[in-house]
Amino acid sequence: MIVGNRGSGPGMWRFPAGGGTFSMQAYYDHTERSVPPTFEDSQGIVDLQLQYSANPIGAHTAVWGAEYRYGMDRVTNSTYIALLPPNLDQTWASLFAQDEIALLDGLRLTLGVRAEHNDYTGTQILPTARLAWKWAPNEMVWAAASRTDRAPSRLDHDTFAPGQPPYLLRGGPNVLAETADDYEIGYRGQITSAASFSATVYHTVYDRLRTTQVDPSFTYLFYGNGMQGTTSGLELWASYQATSIWRLYGGFNRLRQSLHLTPYSIDVGAVQSIEGTNPARWGMLRSSLDIGPQAQFDVTVRYVGALSQPAVPSYTALDLRLGWRPRPNIDLSIAGQNLLGGGHAEFTDVATRTDFKRAVFLKVEYRQ
């Protein structure tokens, strides 16, 4: 069971400052999670974000800012699993800067860098670069290269099992941040007054992916960074305004993965597990029809390819939605999901997975 409460919600303030715009956002998030009989967790997070957007100076438009987050985690452990220490306060901080440079008419180069600090692995430097060419009024091609990372969490660093010694799993005291170098080339355009299309080709190089390692003493396991590899793919999206009241949307994604262990790693199961948990193909088609000025009827067909580890069959699903807006601030809708029957699974082992059956939802939304 998970119970969450975000204080009074995020607060955002914007006001002119020194020839630009300064914005500040702050929020408090409190979450309580109970997973009997393994553990209970109570967590509070305070987050503050600052950003300054300068007015253009010549060909340059700069943005810079900072973020600070403070987390308070309180865990009740069990005999099955433990997070040690059970009570931990952590901080995360980051600084970023970005400059958008107008090279030529319609040609822009964006350069940026972010420095992120966490308590486990220190500071990471994450650069990015993007070149966009609007070669026609309604068409643009672009290319981008960037680095991102996933800093270790408490589950990576502090998990022990069972919850009392002798431990068979002893966390990851030396676990590092996972990194990804991402390269993309894309096109986006309004082909006709009624049709738009976008395509993106991407290639990502991963390093230091988390694995479960065996200690040289062969007496316990620990988390390390013994896997690397690449993913490549193609993503397509399109929309078409068939008539003034009928719109069509579609999307398709093709993914290829190649992961392997580093020479010192022996976690063979990790490669099969990660490669098998992402479908190689998925697609979506949606029809949206306006039934008069206040009603809308949507039909969506979704296809998701099979998974190999654990084995999950591919499936096709049909969703229907009828919406009605009796007043500008009131929305009523009835929706049906997975209407082709039989149900389908989406993930996890056959012994523990959940089948998603037909479902009907009634929704009422009121806005002041």
Explain what this protein looks like in three dimensions:
With 368 residues, the chain is mainly beta. 4% of the residues lie in helices and 69% in strands. The protein has helices spanning 154-157, 268-276; strands at 2-5, 11-17, 20-35, 39-54, 60-76, 82-83, 87-104, 107-118, 122-136, 139-150, 159-161, 169-170, 178-189, 195-214, 221-243, 246-261, 281-291, 295-304, 307-308, 311-312, 315-327, 330-337, 344-345, 355-356, 359-366. The strands form four sheets. It has an 18-stranded antiparallel beta sheet that branches. Strands 6-11-12 form a three-stranded antiparallel beta sheet. A two-stranded antiparallel ribbon has the order 19-20. A hairpin with a 3-residue loop joins strand 17 (281-291) and strand 18 (295-304). It starts with a strand and ends with a strand. The model is unreliable at 1-9 (pLDDT under 50).
